[in-house]
Prior knowledge:
CATH architecture of chain B: Orthogonal Bundle
CATH class of chain B: Mainly Alpha
Oligomer: heterodimer
Strand content of chain B: under 5%
Number of helices of chain B: 13
CATH architecture of the domain at 61-314 in chain A: Orthogonal Bundle
Amino acid sequence: MNKSPSKLKFTKTKGFNSFLASLMAIVLGLLVGLVVMLIADPTRAFGGFATVLTGGFRKFGDVFYFATPLIMTGLSVGFAYKMGLFNIGAAGQYTMGMFFAMYVGFMVPVSGPMHWVLAILAGMLGGMLWGAIPGFFKAYFNVNEVITSIMFNYIGMYLVDMWVSNSSIMYVSDMARTNYLPQSVLLPSLGFANSNLNISFIFAIVAALLIWTVLEKTTFGYELKATGFNKNASIYAGMNGKRNIMVSLIISGGLAGLGGAFFLLAPSSIAGSSITYEPINILAAAGFNGIAVALLGVSNPIGIIFSAIFISWLQRGGTLANISGFRPEIIDLVIAVIIYFSAFAIAMKEGFMRLISKKKKKNELTSKEVK
Amino acid sequence: MDTVFYLVQNTLPVAVPLLLVALGGMFSERSGIVNIALEGIMLFGALCGSLTAYMLQDTALNPQVILLIAMLVAAIGGIMFSALLSFATVNMNADQTITGISLNMFVPPAVLLLAKSMFGSDGVTTSVKFYIQKVPVLGDIPIIGRFFFQQTYITVYIAAILLVVAYIFFYKTKLGLRLRACGEHPQAADSVGINVYHMRYLGVGISGFLGGIGGFFYAVGIMSGNCNGHTGVAGFGFLALAVMIFGQWKPLKILGAALFFAFLRTLAYSVPLIPFLNNLHIDNTYYKMLPYIATMIVLALTSKNSRAPKAEGIPYDKGAR
């Protein structure tokens, strides 16, 4: 089947089916959102819903700014998923990335663009560190990575909140948030009016392309995918299962950490200020939304770019719907429903594919008999 | 000695949700379905229960009666919510972890939206006094009375009864045996006429029942009857999963594990009251991290020879070899 793609119609390819499945999940998710809005306030529901869908146009630059960390956490979850690992720890890795970047921003006196380069690298390091721990436990103690990463989400959050609020340089206790970062550590803006959109969006796209290349074009990526398909077979074939688990969770963590750094180091559209962090003991939502992004993008790096922009689009629309009396949390609800249905959709798609291939075999058999 | 009494009295109401929810997880996993959704089921149960308590609080009913009614509503809510998990995983062959995560993500915004439209706040606040200063007669027994029958909640006794019932159901009934068979080798169970789909619905349903009650008991014992969409149940659903693994998917070991974790958490939150720990001047945050770190250490030590149900996490396929 794979050897003769020219004979296949585009509508029957695997990619198109995944796209249809994601689309179905999105439509169902949005429908649930509309129903909830209708229940909450029937008179204004359609107006609010329209705001959710079209609000992205009014906040065009911000859609891409908020999509940047989502691309990174989406890549983080998607990359691990290719390996058969479920990295629900992106939230903790993201927070660690934020903290490490913040630390370099406040504590390491460098001038010029080297400062933000260093801060980004530090963010990546923080994420890698927090991804290495579940990897270590999985590889050497056979502890389910889902439980470990959930535990380390909490541990990371408590640690970062403590470190931040104990530092008089980073923390402004009157405002219950961190200080404004020095200007030299902020990323170069892409010049969109009233938006924090910056160069990191381009970095995120590059990262996605890089991950795609690693997965599709290198031996290392092939090994990771092989281990994901069948761990025992890959060990038999001479691949180092333990090392691969560690490495893929470290890379996965690094991606999420970069996401945290990219979000925090953004130049603010208000001169003299910057993005701040509030140590209020809440897990980073970007980590969990990364799961939605990865699922919608079927763990494909290119798909992840688009699904991140889509989710970010909905979220911007959601904040605008707040003005017409709807809580922005409605978008979180819609995202949860989308994940729920896309979990189905994957299974349904597989069943669908099986049906097609069965029919084909049958046709081939009957045609042989005729001959 | 007062400190010991204090610690025990405060550990029990914390252990109750962990125990019940971990038992729920056990039923689900031993039937073959990984239930990551426990966190969401708990919060949903807490929401149902505290809403019921809110509606009944101005009636002349005794607070303990209100608690029982709210508990039943929470249990029904939990069962209904868990049906979303069984439908996706049993009928639609969806990935169990992903479905569970989506259900967890669904509840907090749902609570926030509901609370906003009903109360204009972030959660449900009740004013029922569930707390029991002293149980009549039993509370006067020396020592034992002070440990178990003073400054407590009725939830402790309900949990004890539920544990016994769960144990008997799990090990001493035909249905319990059938349920366990479906988590170990569903094809073999099917070949002797057990309907694997029904058993898995039952397992997840029981986990919804216990998870919903556990969530409401969390609201009663830890949040003094309230339910909040932002803080939720603070990862107790996940801790309960760890308790279940630490308890090797067995009821009595789960009881021990739940008590252990609850004790650590109580210790973490009562540091200022314990002179020895308070004098060490360790940042309070470290104590808050203690249950999670302990989970990791315990899991690292026990996971190598883990006795997880063999068929958990795998959608049942009648034709599989």
